[in-house]
Amino acid sequence: MFTRVKSAVASLMGGIMAGASGGENAGGSDLPPKFPYTRPEFLGLSPDEVECSADHVVRPILILKESDRLPWATGYAEVINAGKSTLNEDQACCHVMTLHRRPRAPSTPSRTPSSRRRSSLPNGEGLGPRESAESEGLMFHYWALFDGHAGSGAAVVASKLLQHHIALQLQEVQEILLNSSILPPTCQGEEPNNHHAGVSQRALTRAASLRGAAGAPGSPCTPAPRFFTEKKVHHESLVIGAIENAFKDMDLRIEKEKATYNISGGCTALSVMFLLGKLYVANAGDSRAIIVRKGEVIPMSTEFTPESERQRLQFLGYMQPHLLGNEFTHLEFPRRVQRKEVGKRVLYRDHTMNGWAYKTVDEDDLKFPLIYGEGKKARVMATIGVTRGLGDHDLKVHDSNIYIKPFLSCCPEVKVYNLTEFEHGTDDVLVMGTDGLWDVLSNQEVAEAVTCFLGNCDPDDQRRYTMAAQDLVMKARGELKERGWRIVNERLGSGDDISVYIIPLFYGNQQP
Questions:
Q1: One GO cellular component from the entry (predicted)?
Q2: What is the pLDDT of residues 249-299, one digit of tens each?
Q3: How far apart are CA 396 and CA 347, in angstroms?
Q4: Of the chain's two ends, which shows fewer C-beta atoms within 10 Å, N or C?
């Protein structure tokens, strides 16, 4: 136990423990990488430029060379960390994708298992054989940031493939999405039921309705109408569900392909998709997105950390105590409980509580807390500081066989912003950034910096958004001085990898 405590304290000082150096072969794997390490394709960097970008002392800020490489004149800038990991573990990608209509399915419903459907996903090269040249269907714009930890492998793989998983999920429902006047049918292949219940249906008693249910004892051949109307599911919910399932498919794919490829570590994922007039912002991790509209800040994501997800993690530990390996307690205390306090009453809280209460300390309370630390130093099982993301299937507590993955969710939170409800000006933008930005700058500071910079630029200059992204990264990185990287007012600058998109919303209003 003493070794466990020493290791936990070390992790609070240095982030993720075993394998956190950023080496791509930290686990000693001789397997080839799924994809080679590189910087975002849209930067168009040569191998020499990629090598120069990895200077941890100079920390050059990389920006988009040609504004037409990204849609909507999107701006992008990035910088490597100050020595936290060997490589820049952030990854970024951006695509405009078209979902082609599928050939009409046969009358017999397909019973292809989902695992086989996923296996048709190409190796990061478009939609492959799943596409049909019959006619074009939906088009969507996609931007994404991935912040890797314990290596860049998972972040690189997710940047190459997540958009294709989203596309495959959307293909399943694209015919429904294209018919916006009719609600999605409860069962595919059936005519959607959009009528409302009549007076006679509403007048049915619950008991009579249940007696008339198909299969109930004594029920007539023709079931009586239900006592409730069919729940309405809107098209927006289908898109959200497609994104959520795509994240789960991506996580499952990383897990399966680790048997064949060296896919190191895990990553947080933040993606933005523009589809049918709406922005869908999906976040799994601690990156962040905000909309700046006429100077107002509209948060579009929530960070998932050990503190923000305390109750979910504690509940899982409470329901499945074997996951704690008899080394951790799901209870939280303001500090480590000491042996001399056994029998005394100390403050605690569990998964049912937001407030605090006192309990009598027993032997089990001497175990290490499932969640320990505060703020950016909070860790799950003294190991990892984020609670949602992709990968991390092999991550264990230091010097043990306790897996941490059961506590890490790959499911994103998806927030929706309807672009068509507003007329956006040229200074209205969506800012996406990895945590290296938000660790040192607040939402308001970012909004003010972007608004001020764009206000001094020619509105017709399409490079203004990349220059604004560069300015933002520079403000977060700061300048190297005797006491390290410093930003305004001599505050400590970000020593982490920083990646930033600035997406002008004005162009979204012009999309068909």
A1: mitochondrion
A2: 999 999 999 999 999 999 999 999 999 999 999 999 999 999 999 999 999
A3: 29
A4: C
Domain ranges of the chain: 2-9+308-385, 31-105+113-180+233-304+411-510
Q: Which residue has the tokens 């399932």?
A: 245
Distance CA 385, CA 17 (A): 11
Note the pLDDT tens digit of each residue in 133-161.
345 678 999 999 999 999 999 999 999 99
Asked whether 400 and 1 are in contact (CB, 8 A), the reply is: no
pLDDT at 421 over 50: yes
**Burial code of 85-103, b = ≥16 C-beta within 10 A, e = fewer?**
bbbbbbbbbbbebebbbee
- Most confident range (mean pLDDT) of 17-31, 117-131, 228-242, 380-394 is 380-394
Q: At 168, phi and psi to the nearest 5?
A: -65, -40
Model confidence, pTM: 0.85
Distance (Å, whole) CA 434 – CA 287: 4
| 320 vs 307: CA distance, rounded Å | 20
How many residues in total does the chain contain?
512
Taking domain 31-105+113-180+233-304+411-510, whether its CATH number is 3.60.40.10 is answered by yes
Q: What is the per-residue DSSP string for 170-196?
A: HHTTHHHHT-TTSPPPSSTTSPP--PP
**Model pLDDT, residue 86:** 94
